[in-house]
Amino acid sequence: MADIIQEFIVKASPARVMEMFATPEGLDRWWTKQSAGVAQEGAEFTLYFGPEFDWRARVTRFVPDREFELHLTNAHEDWQGSRIGCTLNPEGQGATRAVFYHKGWPVRMNTGGSPATVGPCICGCFAATWNTAKSCPTKGGSRSSVPGDSAGFWLWTRAT
């Protein structure tokens, strides 16, 4: 199994950043076409990306404004059983250090990619959304076109 870990600074409070990870409205702005769920341990999230990608996840960790994690319980085989989450910490005035992770990927994905190529695209989509206050530029299109460091605040990326 492989893990993706990305750490970056966002110019917003932890509460505002958590909204993007742990609420359907936030997820729909940068990742899903439509989602539903409540940020509460044990609750189920629906993550809808299209007719063939109607996934489910269980909230396995939630600490308001600090931590959020989803365990994918019904998803594409490359994502099934993996965990997606974040930890947030205040960073100076009006900023947050976010550590985003996606753990438990198969080393070789059936879609032909690898965790090292998919992770920056997901996080790039989050960055593009946050910095422009618009939706992800590739929602519904090819995620490979998202520049992984266009926002200029990536501190490091590690696939283990």
Structure description:
By secondary structure, the protein is α+β, with helices and mostly antiparallel strands. It has one domain (2-159): 2-Layer Sandwich (Alpha-D-Glucose-1,6-Bisphosphate, Chain A, domain 4). It has three helices and eight strands. The protein has an eight-stranded antiparallel beta sheet. Helix 1 (14-22) crosses helix 2. The longest helix is centred in the C-terminal third of the chain and has 18 residues, at 115-132. The N and C termini lie close together (8 Å).
Task: Give the gist of this structure.
With 160 residues, the protein is of the alpha+beta class. It has helices at residues 14-22, 24-30, 115-132; strands at residues 2-10, 34-36, 44-50, 53-63, 67-74, 83-90, 96-105, 154-159. Mean pLDDT is 78; it is low at 113-117 and 132-160.
Order the strands across the largest sheet as they lie in space.
2-3-4-5-6-7-1-8
Termini separation: 8 Å
CATH superfamily: START domain
Main sheet summary = 8 strands, antiparallel
What string gives the helices and strands in order?
Answer: EHHEEEEEEHE
Can you tell me the CATH class?
Alpha Beta
Task: Provide the helix percentage.
Answer: 10-25%
Tell me how many strands there are: 8
In CATH, the topology is named Alpha-D-Glucose-1,6-Bisphosphate, Chain A, domain 4
Average pLDDT for all residues:
78
Count of DSSP-assigned helices: 3
Radius of gyration: 14 Å
Strand content: 35-45%
pLDDT under 50 segments (min length 5)? 113-117, 132-160
Overall shape: it is globular
Tally of domains: 1
CATH architecture: 2-Layer Sandwich
Structural class: alpha+beta
